[in-house]
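Subgroup meeting minutes
Present: P.N., E.W., G.H.
Scribe: E.W.

1. P.N. recapped why we're keeping a running log of single-chain structure predictions: easier to compare across weeks, and new members can see raw inputs and outputs side by side.
2. G.H. added today's entry (74 aa).
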Amino acid sequence: MRELNVNELQEVSGGVDELVIAGVTITGISVGMTAFAVGSALAAVGGASFAAATALGADDLGKELGSAIYDLFN
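Output recorded in log:
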């Protein structure tokens, strides 16, 4: 029985591995960007909470909560 050459091995294994690696990398980047976008949105919510508490002259507890939320995501 003879050895398979590189092209035959790729056919048997289902194709070129680089394509799979590129797909995983692209998926990983997409997931990372989505997580970054969600984090940015949450940081904006925290910032808005802090700004609203400050603008409305809320009590110290409200300011502390807004500040804590803002700090958590920044």
